[in-house]
Amino acid sequence: MTQARPKIIDVAAGVFAKDNQVLVARRAKGQHLAGKWEFPGGKIEHGETPEECLCREFKEEFDVTITVGEYVAESIHKYPDKNIRLLAYYVTLISGNFTLKVHDAIKWVEIKHLLQINLAEADIPIAAVLEQQENQPVQP
Ligand SMILES: Nc1nc2c([nH]c(=O)n2[C@@H]2O[C@H](COP(=O)(O)OP(=O)(O)OP(=O)(O)O)[C@@H](O)[C@H]2O)c(=O)[nH]1
Fold first, then answer.
1. Where is the Nudix hydrolase domain (predicted)?
2. What is the pTM (predicted TM-score) of this model?
3. For residues 111 and 113, what is the distance between their CA atoms, to the nearest angstrom?
4. Which candidate among 37, 41, 45, 122 keeps its CA 20 to 30 Å from the CA of 23?
5. In this structure, which residue's CA is closest to atom 21 in ligand 1?
6. 27 is in an annotated binding site
């Protein structure tokens, strides 16, 4: 008997970094993982690239316009109720002021302190990659 593969939901996450800090957003009451901090983004819709998804989500969730830069890392995580593949990319702000439409808070966190906050579990490997990148010696 063949077993169906568990469904994996593809989610894009935007790493908005500035001066050794990164922007994180807190999932609001009533949402999956309420109270956890995450890199803003969301589920990649059918036919959408991760880049398109991030531009759409930042507009919907914060009313800002961004561009998507380099890929950071991916994290595959099994929550009790769903499996997700988180694809993280650096993003840059083009225009707009952050207005909270979905989350209940945003804040800047020093990359070296990211692993100490109440991050969504799927984000922990991404935070570890960011910390590692920050600690890499600059090539002459
Ligand atoms: N946007 C985002 N979602 C994340 C991160 N880490 C993480 O585990 N997730 C999970 O990935 C899923 C992303 O979907 P979403 O942001 O569109 O969330 P949602 O509440 O609308 O999902 P739902 O429609 O299933 O309720 C959620 O289950 C969320 O908890 C992250 O860094 N960013």
1. 6-132
2. 0.93
3. 5
4. 45
5. 42
6. yes
Q: Is 110 annotated as belonging to a binding site?
A: no
CATH architecture of 8-135: Alpha-Beta Complex (3.90)
| Alpha carbons 29 and 122: distance in angstroms, whole number | 19
Is residue 40 annotated as involved in ligand binding? yes
30-58: per-residue pLDDT in tens? 999 999 999 999 999 999 999 999 999 99
Tell me, in angstroms, the distance from the centre of ligand 1 to residue 76's CA: 13
ipTM for the whole complex = 0.92
41 C-beta closer than 6 A to ligand 1: yes
Q: How far is the CA of 132 from the centre of ligand 1 (A)?
A: 24
For position 1, what pLDDT does the model report?
59
C-alpha span between 89 and 41 (Å, rounded): 10
